[in-house]
Design the sequence.
């Protein structure tokens, strides 16, 4: 394994960092969060048209760049540093790979080029609060998380005369779902006796679809609640597609990308804290000169660097058939939580105010763990998958 980055990968990071430094400062971030989309559409257009971020990991035949998950993860690390809100994760990490893996030739040819150009944003809608279960991050995704043929979740039935599909049900947490032009909805079909999970394509403006942007703990990661009232839908791929395996594969990639994003946020939270303790004086000297403060920040630094190594390895491992994304995500979320909490503590009273950015990093840490964790479940599932605590059989 060559752990060094290529010149192209370094250039992606450098260019994106310079752009975000100019276009996504604290004031720009707060303004973007107050828009109906929850992000800056002009910045998104720049990221898509000039840097090609939505198409980084999509095949060149569909207008993408043809890079690996590593490049996408590095881009998300830079976005994470400034908590830059965008449809990138929902579109390029969750929805796009599912369409590429399961879609028909016609569906891929129609949708992927528009997604690669940034013209079409997409979101994955999974019923309930089961996103991590559906992506096989905290448990087996073969259960009844999408409704199980019973009441609740999202149900699919054939249209009149067996033509097309109709969806009905509710989804409470959809990342970027309030503004996405396309929804990839997980639903159960076949009733109780022959229920199976399928994925469907629903246009954002479809009749019968009600979308409401929700108030979330982490305002930088927009969420929506969906109600599907007999909505017209198109089956993604065919009924023989291995939906659960595709979701698990996307889950491992998503975990690696999220780990890099969390590392970027943790690194920036640590940087801001170090800058502050160098300037803040108490008893006639900078508080950063106190040994207790140095020890606390040193512990955070070690944890962030360990999380960075794990995240980079997970991004590399995605293309080499190793499933370590969940462990890397657990390490990164823990590092972000620690860095954000220490940042608030060492900023003192100002760190607790709404006017300061420190609380945004803490909310990102808490929100991500609620959405994609918790950390102990990520690790427990990884241990179960590796049969770590199984007692070997003893033959006499």
Sequence:
């Amino acid at each position: 394994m060559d752990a060094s980055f290529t010149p192209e990968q370094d250039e992606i990071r450098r260019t994106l960092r310079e752009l975000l430094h100019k276009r996504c400062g604290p004031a720009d971030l707060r303004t973007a969060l107050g828009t109906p989309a929850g992000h800056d559409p002009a910045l998104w257009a720049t990221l898509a048209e000039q840097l090609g971020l939505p198409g980084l990991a999509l095949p060149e035949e569909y207008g993408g760049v043809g890079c690996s998950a590593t490049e996408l993860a590095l881009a998300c690390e830079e976005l994470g540093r400034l908590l830059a809100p965008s449809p990138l994760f929902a579109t390029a990490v969750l929805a796009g790979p599912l369409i590429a893996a399961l879609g028909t030739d016609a569906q891929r040819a129609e949708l992927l080029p528009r997604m690669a150009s940034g013209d079409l944003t997409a979101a994955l809608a999974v019923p309930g609060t089961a996103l991590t279960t559906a992506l096989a991050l905290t448990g087996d995704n073969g259960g009844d998380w999408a409704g199980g043929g019973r009441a609740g979740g999202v149900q699919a039935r054939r249209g009149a005369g067996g033509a097309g599909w109709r969806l009905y049900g509710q989804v409470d947490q959809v990342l970027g779902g309030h503004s996405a032009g396309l929804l990839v909805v997980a639903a159960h079909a076949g009733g109780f006796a022959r229920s199976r999970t399928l994925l469907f394509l629903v246009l954002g403006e479809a009749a019968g679809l009600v979308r409401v942007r929700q108030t979330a703990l982490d305002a930088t990661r927009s969420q929506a609640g969906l109600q599907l009232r007999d909505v017209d839908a198109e089956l993604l791929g065919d009924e023989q597609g291995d939906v659960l395996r595709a979701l698990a594969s996307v889950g491992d990639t998503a975990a690696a990308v999220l780990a890099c994003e969390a590392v970027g946020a943790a690194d920036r939270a640590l940087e801001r804290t170090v800058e502050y303790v160098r300037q803040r004086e108490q008893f006639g000297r900078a508080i950063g000169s106190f040994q207790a403060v140095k020890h606390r920040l040193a512990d955070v630094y070690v944890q962030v660097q360990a999380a960075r190594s794990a995240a980079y390895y997970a991004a590399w491992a995605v293309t080499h058939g190793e499933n370590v994304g969940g462990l890397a995500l657990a390490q990164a979320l823990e590092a972000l939580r620690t860095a954000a909490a220490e940042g608030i503590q060492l900023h003192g009273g100002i760190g607790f105010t709404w006017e300061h950015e420190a609380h945004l990093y803490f909310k990102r840490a808490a929100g991500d763990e609620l959405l994609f964790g918790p950390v102990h479940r990520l690790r427990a599932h990884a241990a179960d998958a590796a049969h770590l605590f199984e007692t070997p059989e003893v033959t006499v």
User: Anything to note?
Assistant: The chain has a mean pLDDT of 91. The longest strand covers residues 223-235. The chain has twelve helices and nine strands. The beta strands are 122-125, 154-158, 165-175, 182-189, 196-203, 209-213, 223-235, 281-282, 285-286.
